[in-house]
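Why should sequence recovery work at all? Because a backbone constrains its sequence more than one might expect. Tight turns favour small or flexible residues, buried strands favour hydrophobic ones, and helices have their own preferences. The token representation captures these environments compactly. In the example below, the structure is given first.
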């Protein structure tokens, strides 16, 4: 689907607006879980998402992607947590984009008619480990089976940001034409509807060691409304004029202040996704693994599934079972050995 077709459909949507009105109340958020595989369900979270979050491990508690940098000896390969993409390569990962669509305050349901998004990436002031690649693609099931009523364009960009992600749905069908939501994105209680995926790869490992290494290897992403806007359509006489959107969750609740989906450039106050690029085993946060990091490994093992948060599990789980146990010691020892090879 080309951008040109999406823009044509957007024009059609504008013409339809004469017999439909646009309204509010949805949430968009990133999560590292695909919401379908084992141990990746957002509403029934498993460890380690359940430790340290503000929402019991549910929406908003899985928006940090931990990945490794790429290394000259290829030691980033391995099945340690998260490995949610099941490729046994810790240098790759995905931030899935979800939309929670609620019934409008007026009581009308409506249907999402356009989602236009840019993804603004903020790098640390003096980066250490860098991003290698970043790309967005709409989910194939979004507006699927809607024929000429829908169109999608993934947009363009890279590690500095992504622009022009556009998906449009024209809620008209039949002869004579009438309001038709078939194939559209509808309100669904307690269901996170998948829109697309932001896939990320770590860049080449930095060997400029020092304190605060992880902060200098942390990247944040903010959702931003682009020119297609974010709108919802209703049958004439229902709903209201603006789709107000929460970008992300904060303290377990949809983030406020809401963004006006009809205003291009609207963005969130807080980061909607975070990418941390660091090697496994680096408990002391200096970019390498040494004997001094053993204490951090021991602490994660003692904390166990009741106390070790996602960062500790990422750094110290080398077997991929989402926990830190004695069996992970061999992986930690190997991490020390491989840490001496740079990059």
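From this structural description, the recovered sequence reads:
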């Amino acid at each position: 689907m080309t951008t040109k077709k999406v823009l044509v459909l957007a024009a059609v949507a504008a013409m339809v607006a004469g017999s439909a009105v646009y309204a509010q109340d949805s949430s968009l958020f990133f999560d590292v879980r695909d919401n379908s595989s084992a141990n990746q369900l957002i509403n029934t979270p498993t460890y380690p998402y359940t430790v340290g979050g503000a929402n019991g491990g549910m929406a908003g508690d899985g928006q940090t992607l931990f990945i490794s940098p790429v290394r000259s000896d290829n030691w980033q390969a391995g099945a340690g947590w998260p490995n949610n993409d099941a490729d046994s390569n810790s240098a790759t990962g995905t931030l899935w984009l979800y939309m929670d669509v609620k019934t409008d305050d007026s009581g009308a349901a409506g249907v999402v008619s356009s989602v236009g998004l840019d993804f603004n990436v903020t790098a640390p002031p003096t980066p250490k480990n860098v991003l290698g690649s970043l790309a967005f693609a709409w989910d194939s099931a979004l507006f699927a089976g809607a024929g000429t009523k829908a169109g999608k364009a993934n947009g363009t960009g890279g590690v500095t940001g992504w622009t022009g992600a556009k998906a449009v749905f024209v809620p008209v069908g039949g002869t004579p034409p009438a309001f038709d939501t078939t194939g559209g994105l509808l309100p669904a209680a307690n269901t996170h509807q998948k829109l697309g995926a932001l896939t990320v790869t770590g860049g080449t490992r930095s060997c400029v060691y020092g304190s605060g290494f992880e902060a200098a290897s942390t990247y944040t992403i903010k959702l931003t409304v682009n020119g297609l806007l974010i709108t919802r359509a209703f049958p004439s006489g229902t709903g209201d004029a603006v789709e107000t959107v929460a970008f992300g969750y904060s303290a377990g609740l949809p983030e406020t202040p809401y963004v006006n989906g009809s205003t291009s450039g609207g963005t969130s106050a807080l980061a909607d996704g975070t990418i941390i690029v660091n090697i496994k085993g680096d408990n002391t946060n200096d970019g390498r693994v040494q004997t001094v990091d053993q204490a951090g490994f021991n602490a994660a093992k003692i904390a166990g599934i009741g106390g070790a948060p996602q960062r500790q599990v990422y750094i110290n789980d080398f077997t991929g079972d989402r926990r830190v146990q004695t069996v992970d010691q061999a992986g930690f020892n190997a991490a020390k050995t491989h840490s001496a090879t740079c990059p």
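A few observations help interpret the result. Residues 3-277 form one domain.
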